[in-house]
Amino acid sequence: MHPVDRLIASHRLRIVEFTPFVVVAAVWFLFDDQLAFASQVLITILFALSLDLVLGFAGIVTLGHAAFFGTGAYAAGIYAIHVSPEPLSGLLVAGAAAGAVGLASGFVILRTHGLTQLMLTLAIAALLGEAANKASFLTGGNDGLQGIEISPVLGIFRFDLYGRTAYLYSAAVLFCGWFFLRRLVHSPFGRSLIGTRENAARMHAIGAPVRQRLLMAYTIAAVIAGAAGGMLAQTTQFVGLGTLGFERSGELVIMLVFGGIGRLYGAFAGAALYMIAQDQMAKHDPVFWNFWIGLLLVLVVLFARGGVLGLCDRATQAVRSVWTRSR
Amino acid sequence: MIESFTAAAVSILFHGTAYAMVLYVISVGLSLTMGLMGFVNLAHGVFAMFGGFATVTLMNRYGVPFGFALAGAFVIVALLAIVLERTLYRRLYGASELEQVLFTIGIVFMAAAVARKLWGTATQPIRVPAILTGQIDLGFRAFPTYRGFVIAVSLCLIVTLWLGIERTGFGARLRAAVDNRRMAEAIGIDTGALFTATFALGSGLAAFGGGIGADILPVHPGYATEYLVYFLMVVSVGGLGSIRGPFFAALLLGIGDTACKYLVPELGAFFLYAAMIALLLWRPLGLFGRA
Amino acid sequence: MTPRSMLVGALTGLLCWLPAAAETVKVGIVNTYSGPLAAAGEQMDRGIRLYMKLHEKELPPGVTVELIRRDDTGPNPEVAKRLAQELITRDKVQILTGVVWSPNALAMAPLVTEAKTPFIVMNAGTSPITARSPYIVRMSFTLWQSAYPLGAWAAKNGYAKVYTAVSDFAPGIDCEQAFTKGFTENGGQIIGSVRMPVANPDFVPFLQRAKDARPDAVFGFVPAAREATGLMKAFGDLGLPQAGIKLIGTGDLTTDEELPGMGDAALGVITMHHYAAAADRPANKAFIAAYKAEFGAKEEPGFIALDSFDGMAAIFHVVREQGGKMDPDKTIALLKGWRYDSPRGPVMIDPETRDIVQNEYIRKVERVDGQLRNIEFVTVPMIKDPWKVFNPPK
Questions:
Q1: Nearest residue of A to residue C114, measured between CA atoms
Q2: pLDDT one-digit tens code per residue, C247-260
């Protein structure tokens, strides 16, 4: 197949790309007593997708992505308490607030590189965390934002104890987010991000507005992360300081790396596998769970740099070469 | 009024400096490894943590006197660092920043879990020798003796380090390799051995800092993640590869943080992060960093 | 789902259809097993395990209690809420218990009401918790129960000026308000106050501030265990005892399991609490002996271990009375007004508020047989939670 043909084919939506949503539907039928947990997984996948845009496509290493998630969560929570308990408008507010923070902070961090950039992402997230902590009249401080009540989605679907509405809500928003991001990364804008990641100098040389595009990508990612955070606030009716914390940012990077960065579907694989593994392991040995994660991380970096999807690629390649050789 | 203001100011300077000295002794090794090897080592706090644990264990379980326990911690952790560098870190020298970050985070997780398994979750109680407890009365104010000890010992250590880097052959080779590694290799400096030696030195210093600073930064299994931000702050504000930069950065951040907590406790750590952002924007390479 | 797990599921389902001679009461425990604050969780787990071991045989024949443990990793309300939701919907527990941290308990309250699952609080001490749901019963303490009478006692016993230094979260603020009210109502003067960050390595700047204000005493509150030792160290290092400034607070300052390591700075520190391991009540002596037999002769139980022990006693009481067939409303009714002779002294569950009513003791730290211990010297009997008295439900 001509290389260009392959590239064009990958832009088009293939049937296999709907697999994650087949799984989402299957979970609804097979695991209906675990929907609360499953909706958390879906929210985290959306969050991971937004990180993939920043880290995988734009190549910005950040350890403070939770800043946007937390901003969205608090925005949605505060909106629900003080303005209106309607969820869909709350989601828009969450995305907008996070986007504003993303634009401002992106402006600041994109002037730097390397360790300095990393430190700034950390510092901005820490700063927001402190602000949320101190502004306890608004955010509940260390005790978290309580008393959020969300009215039924579209006036019909009430958020229940078993998480059914939460699951459908999260799945719908995730689908929209995924669809949008997929179109984005296969557009000229998306391709230019990849170009910047691979060779920024060359992008400058061909006159591409590099800084502008990176800032736009960073802001879009912030909006999506904020929407994910808003969903968390609405489905759990609670927001804690942990939504902004370093642990959440770090955990997300690890999830994405496990799945495979820069591939969109790595977010699905990584987030789902990590959260399920954590849930299971926490029951058996909550104390030593971190050790295995650390070990897995070291091994992935040393031997399996593409994460789970990278391993799948290698496996399919191996199978394919055996197949062609045998003919 | 003036008297109580100066008294408060002196107290803040003193405590802030003790805090800053501990931060510096721990972080200087990180500055060296990051500047020399270009390696983002987020696991640096692990060496300080194990230094603290080693000191406490040597003293409490084996009855080793304080001074020797600190020296012992230095040696043990330096050896551990050499082993880690030769086996694992080496493989990732050319790797991308993201990979180094992930790798070292993985090390942090494993170390924390191991520490928890070996020493439990409680903070390690450190019993300093009796002569170092209590207060020294300097007439106008009394100060905790131990913190004075920390400042004094740290300053001696720092002066020795600076002289060592400026005056010895090893120091000269180190500075050459930091400035321009290819050139240094071209004139026959064995950068591989230099890396290992520097890594060991930096980690040993971190261990010493962790042991002596156990009073100010309590030693417990979550140490490496909890204080990582502070070490990274000192190094990025000070400038990678610089010895002097982190010193001033540590003083700035240590005294500034203590002053804020004393004068405006409602702001908490806000100052620290805001100051760091401002400093990094003004000087992206750090106060004393080089391109 | 694998074929094998489906088979196991089917067989189990089949077995459940058989005439139930066995009743298993599932108890869900939300505790802190990992993270920097896991020491408190370990205390709680020990209390639970000890009670189970000692009293498992006292259950009616055919009735077993199954404990399902979940890790909230610290004061993380969103995690606790999710875990409670899973315990209720997935594991179908009949009783919820545990919870070290007040924010976690508060987040779980709406779920408890919606699912009608009785929740027996084993530690979290913020007063409004029991008011948040009619299915919550507390077996531990409230901070107002110790801080408020302490304020009153301090004002009447020679402390005219006090500086408060508490950790900046709900329990700390609770304590500050309770102490201030008790102290100022009885003629005392609060000359200054400071709130310290919860995750705080260094107490020195805050205590320096307190020292400079020259009070008679500093009222301190920090989350128990590790931070208490740090605060005590800073207190000693800064020379506050030498300057004639005393340290007073709730028992969180000198918890029995940390106290031996705190050094001489702790001598003379006065605290008020519902339990001291050094008390020589017969029930306590038996408890201490059993604790040391199980966990080691050098181990001292802290109040968290004791409160969890008693929490299990409450659970066993309702299980026994209902023969293993649990009805939520009956469970709550059984606990209202329940009296029990605990190692800490006599306790009762207030029928109106479902909160604990117990003795509070004022203790001083003294060196006994070479070890530091909290020695009780004043008993204030059967205190109800003062906060609820001042804030009746509207």
A1: A161
A2: 999 888 888 877 87
Is residue A28 over pLDDT 80? yes
CATH of the domain at B203: 1.10.3470
Please tell me whether residue C42 adopts helix, strand or coil conformation.
helix
Of B141-155, B164-178, C46-60, C192-206, the one with minimum mean pLDDT is C192-206
Residues A286, C34: C-beta atoms closer than 8 Å: yes
Average pLDDT over chain B, rounded to an integer: 85
In a domain, B287, yes or no: no
Q: How far is B34 from chain C (nearest CA, A)?
A: 26
At C291 the pLDDT is 92
Provide ipTM, 2 decimals: 0.82
| CATH class of the C144-273+360-390 domain in this structure | alpha beta
Average pLDDT, chain C: 86
Asked if the Cβ–Cβ distance from B268 to A134 is below 8 Å, we say yes
Element (H, E) at A147: none
Instruction: Say how many domains are in chain B.
Output: 1
Best CA proximity match to C122, nearest among C108, B122, C352 = C108
Structure tokens, A105: 């902070």
DSSP-based three-state secondary structure for B291: coil
CA closest to A296 among chain B residues? B106
Identify the burial level of C260 via C-beta atoms within 10 angstroms of its C-beta, where 0-12 means exposed, 13-18 middle and 19 or more buried: middle
Fold of C23-141+283-354: Rossmann fold (3.40.50)
What is the structure's pLDDT at C151?
92
Distance CA B236, CA B246 (A): 8
Check if A284 contacts C (Cβ < 8 Å): no
| Chain C, nearest residue to A290 by Cα | C34
Domain that includes residue B237, residue range:
2-282
Instruction: Label residue A244 by pLDDT band (50, 70, 90).
Output: confident
Mean pLDDT, rounded, for A189-199: 88
Q: What's phi and psi for B38, nearest 5 deg? A: 60, 30
Where residue C35 falls (left for φ over 0; alpha for ψ -120 to 50; beta otherwise) is: left
Q: Would you give the end-to-end CA distance of chain B in angstroms?
A: 48
Average pLDDT over chain A, rounded to an integer: 88
The SS3 of residue B41 is coil
CA nearest B210: which of B237, B230, B236, B239? B230
Q: Which whole number is the average pLDDT over A139-145? A: 80
* A36, A232, A287 ranked by CB distance to C34: nearest: A287
- Model confidence at C19, pLDDT cuts 50, 70, 90, reads very low
In the predicted model, what is the mean pLDDT of residues C305-323?
92
- Contact residues, B window 86-145, toward A, CB-based 8 Å cutoff: 88, 91-92, 95, 97-99, 101-103, 105-114, 116-117
Instruction: Give the DSSP letter string of C148-178.
Output: HHHHHHHHHTT--EEEEEEESSHHHHHHHHH
Please state, as a whole number, how many other Cβ atoms lie within 10 Å of the Cβ of residue A19.
12
- Residue A324 makes CB contacts below 8 A (sequence gap 6+) with none
How far is Cα B56 from Cα B146, in angstroms, rounded to an integer? 16
pLDDT of the residue at B55 = 92
Chain B residue with the nearest C-alpha to that of A307: B99
User: Does the distance separating the beta carbons of C230 and B261 come in below 8 Å?
Assistant: no
pLDDT at C3: 58
Domains of chain A are 20-292 (1.10.3470)
Asked whether the beta carbons of residue A161 and residue C88 sit closer than 8 angstroms, the reply is yes
Indicate if the pLDDT at residue C1 is higher than 60. Answer: no
In angstroms, rounded to a whole number, what is the distance separating the alpha carbons of residues A246 and C9?
40
**Range among A9-18, B121-130, C348-357 rated most confident:** C348-357
User: Residue B97 and residue A118: Cβ atoms within 8 Å?
Assistant: yes
The better pLDDT of the pair C182, B181 is held by: C182
Ranges of each domain in chain C: 23-141+283-354, 144-273+360-390
